[in-house]
Every structure is written in structure tokens, then in C-alpha cells.
What does this fold into?
Amino acid sequence: MRYISKKLFKPLCSNCQKPISVPDGLFCENCFLGLLPLTPPLCIYCAKPITEGSVCGYCMLEKNQIFTGGVSIYEYAATAASMIKKGKYGEIPWIFQRIGIALTDAAGKFNCDYVTGVPVSEETYRKRGFSHTDIISRTISSRDDNLKFISVAKRKHSPPQVSKNRSERKILPLNEFIITSPVPEGKILIVDDVRTTGTTLNTYGNFLKNHGAKELFFLTFARSNLIKR
Ligand SMILES: [Zn+2]
Ligand SMILES: [Zn+2]
It folds into this structure.
């Protein structure tokens, strides 16, 4: 795979890229302290932090959940936000390998059969030269024998989404995704770098269910939009 960089194995911090002393570490001490873990309880359907119970008020009203469950690990702030931006806009693919490594343990807990990423648009792929969600999901698969990597769809052009507000993001074209291979039976884990409103994950999850997916879970490194709703 072209994007496998030797830098993965050099002791560099995933965020500031300064040398670190722990050979297999992912972060320097400062950047590690800047990771802000989302503390349970989180809503089992959307990973929003809640004060009690297991389902947030918004998901409680939703009768047809697309995902059986899912989790996000860190707040989209400080180190997590910084490294995702550097990876995407600095076009640094190995940052997403690091994210895949960081997510592998959490990915295993869903007992899924397959792992896949939300496809990036062809335009984004051409610009960056890689699909960050492919890198994350392939990295997880390479480190967990129970999770087979699949790529079953591609995506038409769509603008970057993180900076947009909720109402803008609700509208996604119905034919945003195109199926490229049959969707296998079995549980599928969909991974992404950041969950904002969940519109992209829900749209893609819905699309896969329309193409035969039986049971879906999601996992994202970061979660933003924690206050709205
Ligand atoms: Zn650092
Ligand atoms: Zn929820």
C-alpha cells in the first residue's frame, strides 16, 4: 500500500510530530494531555455525553435507529482536532494510521465481522491522494484478525462538512453514494475520524442498509457538536 509510511514506526508524536521517547507511543506528553476523552455515560446510539441512562433525549424519539450502537472516543478539540486537521489539510496520511491504531481496541469490542470507512468523494481523494477513512479502517483490520476490511461504495462530490452547522448538514443528496461491491452479511463497523451531527454516518448507514446490510455499528476518533441538540 502506497500510503504506508516509514514515519509510522519512527517515534514521532502523532500531533506535533516532535520526537517522543516511548518507541511505540502515539503522542508526546503534552499532546497526550490534550486528548479529552468523552466520559461515560454516552448515548448508545449517537455517543453524545449524557447525565444518566443510556439513550439521549433526541435518540429516544427516534423509532428506527440505523446503528445498533456506536462510540466516539475524544472531544473534537485540542489534540484530536489539531491532528485531524493536520492529517487532512496537511495531507499527512500516517496521522490516520495512528488514529487507526488508537481505535483498534475500541473497534474489537463491537464483535463485528467487517470494518469499513465512510467513503470520501473522488474529488477529495484526487486532491489528497488518499482516503483517510480507508487508512483508518485498513489499519484497524490489519491489527485485528476478526475485522475484515471492506470497501463497498464510492461517493460523489460533496463539500467538507466539519465547519458547517447542523441545519446545513441535514441536507445530503439521496444519491450521494454509489455501490461498488455487494454488501456482505454480518455485522459491519463503520469508522470515521470525526462525528459532528451524525448526518453523514446516518446517510451512509441508511444507504448500506438499503443495500442489504444487516447490522451496523459506528466508531469515530472524535466527536464535535457536543452542546447543540
Ligand atoms: Zn506532541
Ligand atoms: Zn443519542
Q: What stands out?
A: DSSP finds eight helices and seven strands in the chain.
